[in-house]
Write a structure and sequence with these properties.
Order of helices and strands: EHEHEHEHEHEHHEHHHHH
Largest sheet: 7 strands, mixed
Strand order of the largest sheet: 3-2-1-4-6-5-7
Strand content: 5-15%
Number of helices: 12
Structural class: alpha/beta
Helix content: 40-55%
Number of strands: 7
Shape: elongated
Distance between the termini: 35 Å
Radius of gyration: 24 Å
Length: 371
């Protein structure tokens, strides 16, 4: 069985139409992300059309709504795959069915828009920005990184509840972490549908693109800070120690220690769940390998006639991307992520099964709020 999950914030009657079109073929779960009393009528109509409707007590963000939905589906429809779809009419029932048909264990199916025809500027800009960041960080090109139409196997629901981020950054992190979770990304072409210039979308191109690219920005700032510490320490320690070699070693140890602590606590926040010794050994091993690779690549580039400065810049850029990817996927990723907490969502599902949740009710999400 495949369940359709629709996170919704302040929707219009297009949500009701989508539920009506889908409900004959498969169950539909709608999560009201704190839309408020003004939209209660829309959700009541969605419930009357056959959807199972749950509500957050306040707006928590799309990522939080998706996690609530995954917990509810895992509890009430155990073993079912999930297709997530948006409430604003961008995803047609036919496209939803095509994505559902391609779900298989071990892969995420992305409904990829072609962005042809008349596309609102903010949608084109936002997707171009996140697509570039994803390609830069992962080395893979995905046509539509912002698509809300995704086919997810039942086996991935537990992992999906452990992915961090409460807003649009959640969906981006899902893509970034899919490979380390053993999931392949495949794309299914879908129609590009925008109604009223996509006015109903709650994606903010500048703010949400910055939120999505924040881990890369934090990593770059951490690396820059380490460089400044290393340079300053070298200048201070060289006359004190009277040895350039000792000053270089001491400065590098100091800057690397600071960089390790910052990356573990602030850049890759999952790193706080990795034992310090384990993370430190991984970090040291990576630093050693990168140093050897740095020397080897520069040597090869210079030997084939590349100017030293150009070779150095190209090598450093490559090592930066490799370092980011390995630290994110290996060094600061817990070997066994903690099981997501979901007592409220599971309790809500039990209430629904017992017949006490026919009307939309508030479900308090357990995940922390990131604003």
């Amino acid at each position: 069985m495949t369940v359709v999950l629709i996170p919704a914030f302040e929707p219009d009657l297009r949500l009701v139409g989508l539920v009506h079109a889908l409900r004959e073929r498969r169950p539909v779960v709608v999560v009201d992300d704190g839309s408020g009393p003004a939209f209660a009528g829309v959700f009541a109509q969605a419930a009357a059309s056959g959807a199972i409707v749950f509500a957050h007590d306040r707006n928590r963000g799309k990522g939080a709504a998706l996690r609530t939905g995954f917990a509810l589906i895992a509890a009430q429809f155990a073993g079912s795959d999930v297709v997530t779809a948006d409430a604003d009419g961008q995803h047609t029932p036919a496209d939803i069915e095509r994505v559902a048909a391609r779900i298989a264990d071990g892969r995420i199916v992305l409904g990829a828009r072609a962005f042809t025809g008349t596309v609102p500027a903010r949608s084109r800009i936002g997707n171009a920005a996140t697509r570039a960041v994803f390609a830069w960080v992962s080395g893979r090109h995905i046509r539509d990184t912002q698509t809300g139409l995704r086919g997810l196997p039942a086996s991935a629901l537990g992992w999906l509840q452990s992915v961090r981020g409460d807003r649009f950054d959640y969906e981006f992190r899902m893509l970034l972490q899919a490979r380390s979770a053993g999931l392949e990304l495949v794309e299914e072409p879908i129609a590009t549908v925008y109604a009223d210039g996509n006015a109903s979308s709650h994606f903010r191109p500048v703010r949400d693109s910055l939120r999505i690219s924040a881990p890369v920005a934090r990593f770059a700032l951490s690396a820059l800070s380490a460089l400044l510490i290393d340079t300053t320490a070298l200048l201070v320690l060289q006359p004190v120690l009277g040895s350039l070699l000792l000053a270089v070693i001491a400065a590098r140890i100091l800057s690397a220690s600071v960089n390790f602590a910052v990356n573990r606590r602030l850049v890759f926040r999952r790193g706080r769940d990795v034992p310090v010794r384990t993370a430190a050994l991984g970090y040291l091993s990576l630093a050693t390998l990168l140093l050897a690779a740095n020397y080897g690549v520069i040597t090869v580039l210079v030997d084939v006639g590349t100017p030293l400065v150009a070779a150095k810049l190209a090598t450093e850029a490559t090592m930066f991307l490799v370092s980011f990817g390995v630290q994110r996927a290996v060094v600061f990723t817990p070997a066994h992520p903690a099981a997501p907490r979901r007592p409220a969502a599971a309790a809500a599902a039990r209430r629904h099964r017992s017949g006490r949740a026919a009307a939309p009710r508030a479900v308090r999400a357990d995940a922390p709020v990131h604003r």
